[in-house]
Amino acid sequence: MKPLPLGVRVAAGLAATALEQARKLPQQLAGLPLTVVSEAMQLSMRVQQQVTELAIKGDDVLSGLRPAEEEPAWATFDEDETPVTPPRKVTPVTPSRETAAQDTVQEPLADDPWEEEERAIADVPEFMPSYDELTIAQLRARLRNLGVEQLEALLRHEKAHDARPEFVGMLNRRIATVKAQS
């Protein structure tokens, strides 16, 4: 038997394939919308990725043409901000008739504001000179290394100056904890 010409064999194979595809068509139609959507999303993601890659390349090229700012004008950092501390309560000491009669030494009124500030700075405990600028979290981190005497000195300083309730409470609790541990 002589084989049939190539064109006839290809046509027969094409007809058989078309018939098979026609039988599968109802099943494929049900999944067609999902397939179209997923392929569209894949194409969209590929385009976004290519655009991003081009933008990164463009940034690299342009960064060589113009120097970048050291620090943008809109950027602020914690170190740049000045800490806001509430003003201290200063009550001037004026002699009254009752106290003038007693033999007590009173601190005179400060005429010079710099004198008052120097006195306040001198009162800061030597082992923690930056105490007045610390936040409560910064102070909490430093309290672990202090003994009872130092903690009590900080508490006296806090009560004499700002008397911030959260600081006083934390110092009292820490003193109690250290005393209980020893």
TrEMBL record:
Q: Where is the composition biased (Polar residues)?
A: 96-105
Annotated region (Disordered), positions in chain: 75-112
State the name under which the record lists this protein.
Lipid droplet-associated protein
- The organism is Lentzea fradiae
Q: What is the lineage of its organism?
A: Bacteria, Bacillati, Actinomycetota, Actinomycetes, Pseudonocardiales
